[in-house]
Amino acid sequence: MSHHHHTPEFDWDAMGPLLERGAELHGALYRQAAAWLSGLTPAAGVRRVLDIGSGPGVLAVLLAEVFPYAEVVAVDGTPRLLERARARADRAGAGDRVRTLHAELPGDLARLGEADLIWAGDSVHHIGDQRAALAGFAGLLRPGGLLALVEGGLPARHLPRDIGLGRAGLEARLDAATADRFATMRSELPGARDEVEDWRALLTSAGLAPGGTRSFLLDIPAPLPVAAREQLMATFAHRRTAMDGVLDSGDLAVLDRLIDPEDPEGLMHRADTYLLTARTVHTARR
């Protein structure tokens, strides 16, 4: 569910469905995480939830389901994604309790209002000064309120090391190139500061009391169902565009074959593709 909200050239008509389907595929993982949070903080005490970096609203609707007394505010910097969140909430019958708020962080922090629960899913790493962002979130929490910070985990794996095309280890090289691009993205954010990503220490420095940290596994074994394959095709097509001039011509040629819907060795037809990943949730209380 990574959000790339600060990249103006993004085609949101294409990316919106990709992000929404990706989050839906991770539904089982997020459902476990939300259930865990509901055990940490009684539902009756949660009246207002902020979903920061909500994207197309998959989590906002899930949080509204898990915390039935709460107003859930989907906060995002991309109006097109908030339109999807609004439509999704309406379809789920949660339109009366899920609302959307267009906000650019950290600038608009004060507009978010207070909350009993803040879910920040893969959004803090899109803010230049992560330490200041966490302090800002801490200031929005009501006494006893909970911050759930989703950062880290394991990169998604989809392919065996040797797929019988090109040089073995393609996905590891993709991950390494993606990590370099991520570092560049971070360095170019407004007010970017290097920070040791010791999240417990950062949450403590924000004046919060760190609670439990848990990682949630998503394991969809091979052969992937069609919906997951279609998502995989879209994800790899998106990554292929980003890898021009980054990976060597051999790897790019293999990627082109993988995303060709007609190629018998492509992602739509292979029996060995899977989805294995983990997301880590760090909690802290005011």
CATH architecture of the domain at 12-158 and 182-221 and 279-285: 3-Layer(aba) Sandwich
Based on secondary structure, the structural category is alpha/beta
Query: What is the CATH class of the domain at 12-158 and 182-221 and 279-285?
Result: Alpha Beta
Considering DSSP H and I runs of 4 or more, what fraction of the residues is helical?
A: 25-40%
> What is the CATH superfamily classification of the domain at 12-158 and 182-221 and 279-285?
Vaccinia Virus protein VP39
- Summarize model confidence as the mean pLDDT: 94
Through-space gap between termini:
26 Å
Based on CA inertia axes, which overall geometry fits?
A: globular
What is the helix tally?
Answer: 9
Low-confidence stretches: 1-8
Q: Report the biggest beta sheet as strand number plus sense, adding barrel if it closes.
A: 7 strands, mixed
Biggest sheet strand order reads 3-2-1-4-5-7-6
Q: How many strand elements?
A: 7
What's the order of the H and E elements?
Answer: HHEHEHEEHEHHEHHE
How is the CATH topology of the domain at 12-158 and 182-221 and 279-285 named? Rossmann fold
How much strand content do the residues show? 15-25%
Radius of gyration: 19 Å
